Write the structure tokens for this entry.
Amino acid sequence: MVITDLACGGRWMSLRLAGREWLWSRSDPDRAGVRPGDAFVDAGGLEECVPTVRGAPDHGTAWSRPWRRVGADEVAECGDFVLRRRLRVSASVTASYRLEAAPGFRFVWAAHALLDVSPAARVELPPGAPTRIYPDDGPSYVDDAWPAGGLDQLGPDDGTAVGAVVVGPSAVRVHDGERLELRVHADQPTSIALWRNLAGWPVEQPYRSIGVEPMLGAVFDLATAGPGDAATVPANGFVAWELEVSA
């Protein structure tokens, strides 16, 4: 089962598979009042971050504006692009996406899924996969290789927060009693982002949040994307891809 909130940025509010809720959430009254251009308000769930994650605008443009339903599609009109999403639910969940824009338009997309998992949870990705470590909230990263000093272990709160982009994989598994798998089907560059916040962020009132985020592209900030680091709209004017979630 999936519940989305079209009036509030198309956010996935609930994802129930294998008899459990997988999405973490937190109460923040500011989330309902955001407008395009506002700083990101973290209420958990799964946010559609496009055309960037970090940078400007913060977490992209789709999360901060109302979506509307057009037939079976959920649609976000974001100025220089339109994002369409269609959800199909059975034993798994498939989200089919279509981004329409002028040919040559570059973007990064992340399914910014914050998961309700225990300190014993671990993340499974190909050993040795190129990994870009973002030690703070800026655009710079350090090259490493998965599991990059233990990022596969989600662990207990230790006051740290780190982001990473594992470049190349199209699928990730999260083991926490049950197994959750997120897989992207696309003909564009794919990666898996990780946000492991073990009560290290924000500095003023830190809390725990775990993001496991299938991506198109390979950087958090579109402005820093080099060749092959972003998805690109071809001559036909659209990019289509699918996100499959199973447990």
